[in-house]
């Protein structure tokens, strides 16, 4: 049986997917950039990320250079926008999850916990994403 999602669930899933795609592009772009430098670490391995470069001086320059490339390409701006969209979608989904809790005391406790405790917030998200929207009456 397939889960039916509501608009908050769909918005969160889409925002998460969009950010994942952009971050994957960023990782690929960074790996290609580091490979183009032709750097090998002391143990003979080729780093995949700028921060994996053993030589601190070379690493700092590579981090700065890649940051400029990423910003000039527009990818960094897209990632920032996608993170903001995900943050908004996450908040909307949390508010939806809290709104369907039938008991005032439990809702108040979880509302406070969602603001103050990251682990609880993630558990709420995980739970509400498993929820079939057809089973909930608002």
Kindly summarize this structure in a few lines:
The longest helix is centred in the first third of the chain and has 31 residues. The protein contains 5 helices and no strands.
What key phrases describe this protein's structure?
138 residues, mainly alpha, 5 helices
Helices and strands in order:
Elements: H1 7-37, H2 56-73, H3 75-99, H4 104-116, H5 118-130
What number is the mean pLDDT? 95
Major beta sheet summary:
none
Order of helices and strands: HHHHH
The CA-CA distance between the termini, in Å, is 22 Å
Structural class: mainly alpha
User: What is the number of helical segments per DSSP (H or I, 4+ residues)?
Assistant: 5
Radius of gyration: 21 Å
Structural commentary:
The chain is an all-alpha fold. It has one domain (7-131). It has five helices and no strands. It has helices spanning 7-37, 56-73, 75-99, 104-116, 118-130. The mean pLDDT is 95.
């Amino acid at each position: 049986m397939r889960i039916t999602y509501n608009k908050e669930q769909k918005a969160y899933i889409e925002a998460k997917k969009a950010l994942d795609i952009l971050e994957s592009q960023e990782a690929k772009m960074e790996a290609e950039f580091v490979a183009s430098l032709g750097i090998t670490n002391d143990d003979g391995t080729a780093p995949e990320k700028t921060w994996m470069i053993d030589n601190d001086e070379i690493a700092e320059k590579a981090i700065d250079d890649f940051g400029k490339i990423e910003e000039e390409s527009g990818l960094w701006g897209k990632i920032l926008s996608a993170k903001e969209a995900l943050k908004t979608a996450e908040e909307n989904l949390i508010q939806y999850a809290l709104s369907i809790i039938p008991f005032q005391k439990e809702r108040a406790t979880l509302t406070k916990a969602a603001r103050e405790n990251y682990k609880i917030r993630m558990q709420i998200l995980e739970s509400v994403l498993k929820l079939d929207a057809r089973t909930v009456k608002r």
